[in-house]
Write a structure and sequence with these properties.
five-stranded antiparallel beta sheet, 379 residues, single chain, 20 strands, globular
């Protein structure tokens, strides 16, 4: 996960005096009776790299296209830098867009592709040359000016598309799955390059993605969408560590969910009885959840400690049999079946070679976690 540039100061979205740079108010879009975007409201701040994350069909691309002016909202408003852009046509908005396919002109060179918008704006040749050269250097494509798109790799085409979007110095850059066409290693490298470029130019980026790792790596904040609605907005660490629902917990990373009932509620903790475990769950928390409430306790797999020794204490541990081990190189994910039939996932760092690991298939093991690692979910 990329470190936020706001860590040493108050984040803009936490500052009551900060004004949003992009303000989306009750935005909705309906296609033939089907609601694609459902009353979405968002505040995005200058210099952010904000990601709209969700599964295919959740409405994120439609929302992006309404920001770009390619779709007309059924209702609601869009403000950019304090100006109402709701009814402003796309070509008059201070917005550039990087498409998933990059949409480069195949008959033009790299230089001509980047310069196209500046030529349309009537800029002088000397100014165009200077600005194109500057943005070629920014995206590390100097020396590629005479090449055409079919002579470039996927990563190089992506950089040209980004330079073409940035060269007009827009107030807002929209990115629709910009790295989807790249292979895994190139995508991972390009993610950090894109973040560095965005921070250098200081332009506000809004990116659509269905890839949770991509959004977690690149974003200052994430808006997680489902069925046209925003379910949660927050920094990557906030959404991962403190999901507000079972859907969010399941979508962002892997999670173990224990359904249960609150049997004790105190100011600093709750105790949960779950049918999946013999032992009760002790969860440190500050929120008030009444006794008798039906809830779920979420535990991330990397918080689960796997051992062959019986843990001490009366809470937050169980035992089971290893049914599968998924080897991922740096870590292995153990699938442990409890007596109740529930499968718990535990992520363990591979500190020794696979042949030397002490726990193997069909071994009986114990699992435990700390009270502060549990997350109470009521929906």
């Amino acid at each position: 996960m990329a470190q936020s540039k706001y860590l040493n100061s108050l984040e803009p979205w936490q500052d009551p005096k900060a004004q949003p740079y992009v303000s989306i108010k009750s935005l909705a879009k309906t296609f033939g009776g089907r609601v694609a975007v459902n009353e979405v409201s968002l505040s995005i701040y200058k210099g952010e790299l904000f990601s709209l994350l969700g599964r295919s069909g959740c409405g994120k691309t439609t929302l992006l296209r309404m920001l770009a002016g390619f779709e007309t909202p059924s209702s609601g408003k869009v403000f950019i830098d304090g100006m109402d852009m709701t009814d402003t046509p796309a070509y008059k908005r201070p917005v550039s867009m990087v498409f998933q396919s990059y949409a480069l002109f195949p008959h033009m060179t790299v230089e001509q592709n980047i310069a196209f918008g500046l030529i349309q704006d009537g800029m002088s040749k000397s100014e165009i040359r200077d600005r194109v050269d500057a943005y070629l250097e920014l995206v590390q494509m100097s020396g590629y000016e005479r090449r055409k798109p079919d002579q470039l790799s996927g990563g190089e085409r992506q950089r040209v598309a980004l330079a073409r979007s940035l060269v007009k110095q827009p107030k807002l850059v929209l990115l629709d799955e910009p790295l989807a066409a790249l292979d895994k290693k190139l995508r991972e490298r390009t993610q950090l390059e894109l973040v560095n470029i965005q921070e250098k130019v200081g332009v506000t980026f809004i990116m659509v993605s269905h890839d949770q790792e991509e959004a977690m790596t690149m974003s200052s904040r994430i808006g997680l969408m489902n069925e046209g609605r925003i379910l949660q907005v927050g920094a990557p660490t906030e959404i991962y560590e403190y999901p507000n629902s079972k859907y969010v917990a399941n979508f962002i990373g892997s999670v173990n969910l224990f359904d249960g009932i609150i049997i004790e509620e105190e100011p600093d903790h709750v105790i949960v009885k779950s049918t999946s475990m013999e032992k009760n769950l002790y969860v440190s928390h500050s929120a008030s959840v009444p006794v008798g409430a039906q809830i779920s306790v979420a535990i991330r797999p990397e918080k689960v400690i796997l051992t062959d020794s019986k843990p001490k204490g009366e809470y937050n541990w169980t035992s089971g049999v290893v049914k599968d081990i998924v080897y991922l190189g740096d870590v292995s994910i153990y699938h442990v079946k409890l007596r109740s039939g529930m499968i718990i996932f535990a992520t363990v760092a591979n500190l020794v070679r696979a042949a030397e690991r002490p726990v193997q298939w069909e071994d009986e093991v114990f699992l435990y976690w700390k009270p502060e690692n549990g997350i109470i979910l009521t929906i």
